[in-house]
Specification:
Elements lengths: L14 H51 L6 E7 L6 E8 L7 E9 L5 E6 L12 E4 L10 E7 L2 E7 L5 E3 L1
Length: 170
Amino acid sequence: MRWWEKSKHAAGFTLIEVVTSIGILVIIFGLSFTSLNAMYKTSLVRGSGDTVASAVSTAALRARAGAQGTPWGVYFDYDDVTRIPVKVVVFSGATYATRNTAYDIEYPVGTSPVLTTVSLQGAGVSGGSDHELVFAVLSGATAQYGTIVLTTQDRISTVTISSIGVPTRQ
């Protein structure tokens, strides 16, 4: 048998088969990475929205329960220029400045989301840089109701706080 003739028992892959297989794998991995990246961005902003809603709900429930006999509130610690949040603090007291620090509960938000809009002035006009939300003892009502919009790249999560202290997330 000559070298250019195939034997009946020849096994292996041709160069075209190998290149085609590698090309298909690259396409599959590329699509998977894009999909995972989109899911990661969505989970970041959704998780941050859940954190904010959970903090608001905790403060409202403690105020309704009359815990410590004081109003309860939420302080949104973020930079007014960059809008990057540091943390969300649930506090006991009429204001964040006069709170009892022994009852503080801190919720880390992370540096990924940006607080695009924080409008917590109730029926009044907001400057968009509101930091504090306080709930009344026993009723859980607040005069600082409004919306908080979190953004991570092209993903948006909105938390709306009603005047009776109920947060909803979209």
